[in-house]
Amino acid sequence: MANDQLKEQFATIAAESFRAVYPEAYSEAGDTEVFTGEFILNSLEKPKDPTKGRFTLPVFRFARLLKAKPPDIASAISDKVNKLIPDGTGMSCSSIAGFINVSVDAAAESAATLGAVLEQGKEYGSSTLGEGKKVLVEYSSANIAKTFGIGHLRSTVLGHSLKRIFRKLGYDVVGINYLGDWGTQFGKMIVAFRLWGDESKLSGGSGESAREDVRYLLDLYVKFHKEAETDPDLDKQAREAFKQLEQGDPDATVLWERFKEISLADFDRLFNILGVDFDLITGEAFLNDKMEPVIERFEKAGLTSISDGALIVDLQDPQLPPCLLKKADGATLYATRDLAGLIYRWEHFQFHESLYVVATSQSDHFRQAFKAIEMLEDAEDLPPERRMTGRVKHINFGWVMFGGKIMATRAGTIIFLEDVLDEAQSLAKKMIEEKNPDLKDVDETARKIGVGAVIFSQMSVRKHKDVNFDWDEVLSFEGETGPYLQYTHARLNSLLRNYDGTIGNAIDHKLLDREQERRVIEQLSDFTDAVERAAREYDPNVIAAYLLRLAGAFNKFYQRKTEDGKIDKIISDNQELTRARLALVKSVKTVIAEGLYLLGIEAPEEM
User: Fold this and answer.
1) Cys-Cys crosslink for 159: which of 58, 209, 357, 590, Cβ 3.0 to 4.6 Å?
2) DSSP codes joined into one string, 402-455
3) CA–CA distance from 562 to each of 310, 316, 557, 558, 569 (Å)?
4) Pairing, β 134-138 against β 353-357
5) Judging by beta carbons within 10 Å of its beta carbon (0-12, 13-18, 19+), is residue 104 exposed, middle or buried?
6) How far is 73 from 139, CA to CA, in rounded Å?
7) 45 DSSP 8-state letter
8) What angle (nearest 5°) sits at the alpha carbon of residue 39, between those of residues 37 and 40?
9) How many C-alpha atoms does 414 have within 13 Å on its Cβ side?
10) Using the 8-state DSSP alphabet, how is residue 565 labeled?
């Protein structure tokens, strides 16, 4: 039985035990949630000392309700649970101070865990948690006519990972790339191209030509901002050019479509390098004809007012400025389009959740948009099933920095993502040639390592924290890095290649009884928990941290020594023991490969 199933079974039995051991206190408390299996399940922790049990329940929070001391509660409930546990589970309880520690028979856990991994393969860790539920994940969402910078990386890889994680749990997931393809910035691009653009420098192709086309457009954008510092009239021209675009001016529209075509070709090339894909690609321009009906809904609900000529929604919150729907000149804003987008997605998809994987710098914007939607649904007195309030969430994340500095597109200090990926692959190739010069397909392996290292650099910290990019740390084959995990996977694969026998689940699980083996099996058993927690916290770092623990546990097992100081080899003359250990090796390889996949990282067979 996997760890998540054991926890659920224990929680159910513990809830029953509380009711049986303390009937009077339970009766007085009524339906207090602390006596439910769900509450107990969510209260379970890992013991600081893994030899004390697989998981533990602190009972201090029950003391006041039960009018008893925590050690006494732990002892009484532990005894009752042991009597109620069905035979064959291998589970048992013991009490230490105010904790109920739950242990599992090593052979039983090995049989259940390795059996599940070997039978299910890459499907291990999947669940039906999200069955019948649709989740939208918006990620990447870069502006067209600009080169993909290192700052765009985090939204792209975090969102793509979340899409895979939710799909693993049975959700119907729609990955959305919401392009920044509208707004005054395109007035600036149109003006810049009209003034300084050279048509001959745009090839309109793909591959390297697309890369150069976009960089040329970026140069024009940077030049516009530098020139505008001394020529304020340029901003006026930009506003006029965007107005022309909004009104369908043929010349402005042709330029805008050209910028978009060039950008999409370059984006596709980069997404292919990263292994990222989308189910729906749309943009702000798509919402042009959907904004007016939304504004009318807010007006009809009595939520709008005029402030300095602008149409606003007063959010009735001192922490939030008003939400602007229209400027004094009648122009709509980014917020107007986002409100229209929220309503369109809700009406079109009827989602369980809609996630916006966007940097922390946009937190106030999303708070405004979500508050405005909440006020609208309150004013229209919509029933719960017709409300999106509470279903839309901003999945914010910190900055990506080089040398402690944040990159800025306008200032021209952006670091191109592709340059970073190229450098990572180049450095990875050098490392391979030093460590394994006879390796076949060096370039392909270097690509997997380089790209994987860059992606893992974003997953190796919690999403709300800033990432300071450091080459030495990112590409190290040791420590908490992507290459370390990939190298562990390659090592596991090498062990399996060196064995000429059959690996199956018909093994003697009692042979896997040493501490290092138990720790590996326990980590394998925790995989589903890690996937579910990553979804619950909207943070792939949970899986990244899990994989590092699993790889660490395996490497301790791999480097284990016998009493005479020699390496305790996994493949030995003892065929039964070898088969058991290689079943463990195959299971670890399977889970590391699947965990890396969920992060968007490839797992090389050799390194």
Assistant:
1) 357
2) ETTEE--TTTT-PPBHHHHHHHHHHHHHHHHHHH-TT-SSHHHHHHHHHHHHHH
3) 78, 70, 11, 12, 9
4) parallel
5) buried
6) 48
7) B
8) 65
9) 21
10) S
Q: Distance between alpha carbon 540 and the CA centroid of its chain, in Å? A: 4
User: Could you give the 3-state DSSP secondary structure of residue 476?
Assistant: coil
Consecutive 10-residue averages of pLDDT for the chain (607 residues):
79 93 79 80 89 92 89 96 88 94 92 94 96 97 83 94 98 97 90 93 71 88 93 93 91 93 90 96 93 96 96 95 91 90 98 97 96 98 96 94 57 72 91 90 95 94 87 76 95 93 85 94 95 97 98 94 87 93 97 98 95
- What's the start-to-end Cα distance of the chain, in Å? 35
Q: Give the position of tokens 């989602």.
A: 351
**Tokens describing residue 303:** 């939520």
Measured CA to CA, the distance from residue 265 to residue 276 in angstroms comes to: 14
**Structure pTM?**
0.90
Rounded to 5°, the CA angle 162-534-391 comes to: 65
Task: Reduce the secondary structure of 354-369 to three states and give it as a string.
Answer: EEEECCHHHHHHHHHH
The amino acid occupying position 465 is K
DSSP 321: P
Concatenate the DSSP letters of all residues of 109-124 into one string. HHHHHHHHHHHHGGGT
Residue found by looking up tokens 């966007």 in the block: 358
Go through the domains of the chain in sequence order and give each one's CATH number.
3-104 (3.30.1360), 134-286+349-406 (3.40.50.620), 453-599 (1.10.730.10)
Which among 1, 109, 4 is positioned nearest to 529, based on CA atoms?
4
User: What crossing angle do the helices spanning 250-274 and 417-435 adopt, rounded to 10°?
Assistant: 20
Q: Is 235 helix (H, G, I), strand (E, B) or coil?
A: helix
Which backbone phi and psi does 139 adopt, to 5 degrees?
A: -150, 165
Tokens of 158: 């975090």
Q: Which two tokens stand for residue 301?
A: 């609900």
